[in-house]
Each structure stands twice: as structure tokens, then as C-alpha cells.
Amino acid sequence: MRRLARAGLVVLIGLAAASCGYSLHPSLPSGIRTLQVPVLENKTSEPGIEDFLTQALIQAIVNSGAAKIEGKIVGYSLTSLSFDRAANVTSYRLTVALALTLRDLRKDEVVWKQDRIEDRADFLLSGQQSVNIVLQNDALQRAAVDVSRAIVSFAFERF
Predict the structure, then answer these.
(1) What's the pLDDT tens digit per position in 38-73?
(2) pLDDT in tens, 17-35
């Protein structure tokens, strides 16, 4: 199943780039023509977050053009931000952290490496647990999009 998902992601990037007319970012190192993004390895105890984060990273890369990024999710935490009078949590800060490497496949060289890139999103709780799960997932998606845009900006625009 994972292999199929990885293959699908590579195909998705190729189709998106081909169908949307994206071109390679002119500031990439010479020789880098394609970018592979395998599903990020989840090193946290939070199940399923690798899908949100990988998809956000792919979207950010597709929008910029370009190599192969290898990565791991190295952090996921919820921190209580506010409480009501009965000491019940009313809002959380969700923080995600990634460790990533940009690799030139032709030269088999590391072009860029960052051991910890972090972003966060805050959300208010509602009274229902099912709604809170949706709110937490929405916060994860926002953090994933923000961290992925920052990664693409840092990795590709610095060349």
C-alpha cells in the first residue's frame, strides 16, 4: 500500500507539473530536473500525520517547480494554551517538526539539509470530541502548509 502511495505521489507531481505548465525554478542547481517526494517517515506517536504533511510538501513543491526531498516527521505536540474557570483546556497549540534533506539525484549529493524545521497552528476546542478531532486536523493542515512553504522557500530560493 505504501509503495503504491509513493508511486502515486511521484505520478501526481509529474502530472501536476505537466498539466499545469509549471517550469523548473531558475535558481535550482544545474542538473536537477525532477523532484521526488516519498511519503515522510513518521517518527512520532501520532498516527496518520505523514499524509497531511507529505501532501502539503508536494503541493508547495509543485507550485515552485524542481530534486528529491527525503524527510522524517520528528515532532508532533499539543500544548495547552488557555483554560476555563474549571481548569479545562479551551485551546491548544499544535506543533509539527520535520527533518529534511534535498538531494541531487544525478550527483547523489546532499544539496541542503535541515535537522529540524518547525511550524505550529493554534485552535480552540468545542464541546464535542468529534469536532475537536476535526479542529485538530485543520490545525495540522495549516501547519503543514506553512512549514512546507517555508521549506520550499528556504531550499530552492537560496540558490
Answers:
(1) 888 899 998 988 888 888 887 776 665 456 778 899
(2) 333 333 334 455 666 666 6
Q: Is 45 exposed, middle or buried (0-12, 13-18, 19+ CB in 10 A)?
A: exposed
Residue 123, Cβ neighbours under 10 Å: how many? 20
Tell me how far apart the alpha carbons of residues 159 and 29 are, in angstroms, rounded to a whole number. Answer: 7
Query: What is the CB-side half-sphere exposure of residue 77 using CA atoms within 13 A?
Result: 10
Query: In the chain, where does DSSP find H-type helix?
Result: 2-20, 49-64, 129-157
Note whether 150 and 96 are within 8 A (CB): no
